[in-house]
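Quarterly update from the structural biology core.
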Amino acid sequence: MFQEPGWKGVRRQPSTKNKEGNVACGPPLHNSWRPFTEAFDNRDEDRAARRVLTYINRRLDVFKPQLRSDIIKHRDTSLVTLHLPQPRRGIPHEFNILNVYNDGETHAAVHELIRISETLPRISLCAGDFNIQDRTWDEGAVNQIRPSSPFMRLQELFTDLEIQYVHPVNRGTPTRIPDDENSRASVIDLVAASAALINQEGFHYKVKVDDRERWGSDHRPLQIEVPISGSEPEMRYMRRFRQNDRECF
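Predicted structure, tokenized:
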């Protein structure tokens, strides 16, 4: 699961204004991973580049992963459903994964998800860059107690979705390492899950602290282990963060 992914030019498409054609942009591709994202066009404000991108390993094709653009159409959030034929006890047959990039200035993703929360299916796992600091997950931050504060709005969203914030096994480890050495490292990349998933033996995640795994990003990746199926191998995947490395127009 990526936030602010680095899109790349994948082909040229016919254009009435450019004889060489316009560059069509898409996600980086890998034979083992299937990308789930909507098409975009940076020349159209309503179809600007998505700021979230979810990959599902092809070994999980047996679960028929599905991008739920029929439910969520927003550049900062995406919903992918895995269809589990034999889920573990308490895990639903439709395992819904919510990927979130919450802009630190507008908090548009949280506001949009609150707005449509009554229409969303049951969420099992939610992860992303929320750009919200609070002492609940970051001992160096201050508590936000104003009802309209970003933290309280996020708590409202988690309540609406019936999910809970989950601490990593290396609790308190910063997830964002600023380039400025004088700035404080912070925790703004969060994981929340349903009670059914939290109670599953083997469910946990950790913040990866090897700087080589950051791929030049100022965010550390989170590695989440999710035991979801009673018949298939456990799902293990890493949520990585990467800043844009090019612009596509």
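Residues 2-12+21-239 form a domain with the Deoxyribonuclease I; Chain A fold (CATH 3.60.10.10).
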